[in-house]
Design goal:
Order of helices and strands: EEEEEEEEEEEEEEEEEEEEEEEE
Shape: globular
Radius of gyration: 17 Å
Strand order of the largest sheet: 1-24-23-22
CATH topology: Neuraminidase
Largest sheet: 4 strands, antiparallel
Helix content: under 10%
CATH superfamily: TolB, C-terminal domain
Structural class: mainly beta
CATH architecture: 6 Propeller
Number of domains: 1
Strand content: over 45%
CATH class: Mainly Beta
Length: 290
């Protein structure tokens, strides 16, 4: 199960590397270091670029138009290509002190689905006060789910109208069926909880409709057959704390993995960007119509 080529793509020492995606317009991987308040890019020539931000960014997503959608702690903004200007388009949970914006994905209708995260320093007593939302292309904001602690694991099946989502501390990867423009969201039964393999963080789908999950504090990635809800691949990593993953490269056959650096543990590999030859291909990144 572990005969996969894993290597370090970039020694970047991110505090919390997250929200990676393959940008087909620039032919590069783009991601955020949340606590580092930076955006990173890595092109096909293995050149890296780092951009400073005015605040932490829980996510970055590509647009059909120029620029990016960025989720700052309490609002969503449109950024230009150079990350030198930011236009606020939506406030989020300004009345809830403990939460910030976290994981997000472009949805099949051109909007974005994103969640929030209770970052109360008292981890043992964090309450499920975070939520999951959809921001439509017309900038209307809809709450999809509530009673969440740490929003993660968002991914969309391309064969069926199925959304995957994980509230990390529960360990369960949930499934929902959605109608056009998310007018209706129906929770489906799911048994996708895998103990002793860390916790579910970021996710991506491959061309076979399998769900790939970064297992934070589990030192691995797992590939889940979404029909049988079983683990069909497990790939061990040099870091204990993988956070997000994305298929990239011109053929979408390289699996890139971000990670976070735990400040209490000195491990040189934590916080770096990795790449895996997984033996499969990913889906082309959707572009946001906002």
């Amino acid at each position: 199960m572990n005969n996969y080529k894993v290597s370090t793509a970039l020694t970047c020492q991110n505090l919390i590397g997250e929200s990676c995606f393959w940008d087909s317009k620039e032919n590069c991987l783009t991601w955020t270091d949340i606590e580092g308040k930076t955006i990173w890019k890595l092109n096909q020539s293995n050149q890296s670029f780092k951009y400073n931000l005015p605040d932490r960014a829980g996510f970055i997503l590509p647009r059909k138009k120029d620029g990016y959608i960025i989720g700052f702690p309490k609002f969503i903004a449109i950024s230009n290509q150079e990350f030198s200007s930011f236009k606020k388009i939506c406030d989020v949970e300004t009345n809830i002190r403990e939460t910030r914006i976290n994981d997000a994905k472009v949805d099949p209708y051109g909007g974005i689905v994103f969640g929030t995260y209770n970052e109360d320093p008292d981890k043992l007593n964090r309450r499920p006060i975070a939520n999951l939302y959809r921001l439509a292309p017309d900038l209307s904001l809809t709450k999809l789910l509530s009673n969440i602690t740490v929003s993660n694991g968002l991914a969309f099946s391309r064969k069926k109208n199925i959304m995957f989502f994980a509230d990390t501390p529960t360990g369960l990867i949930q499934k929902f069926e959605y109608t056009e423009n998310f007018k209706k969201l129906t929770k489906l039964n799911s048994n996708m909880i895998f103990k002793d393999l860390g916790e579910p963080d970021g996710a991506a789908m491959d061309i076979n409709d399998n769900y790939w999950s970064a297992r934070v504090r589990g030192k691995c990635l797992i590939c889940i057959d979404t029909k049988s809800e079983t683990v069909i691949k497990k790939i061990n990593l040099p870091t204990k704390t993988p956070t997000c993953l994305a298929f990239g490269g011109p053929d979408l056959e390289t699996l890139y993995v971000t990670s976070l650096k735990q400040q209490s543990i000195i491990e040189n590999s934590d916080g770096n960007l990795f790449k895996v030859q997984s033996g499969t291909k990913g889906l082309k990144q959707l572009l946001c119509e906002i």
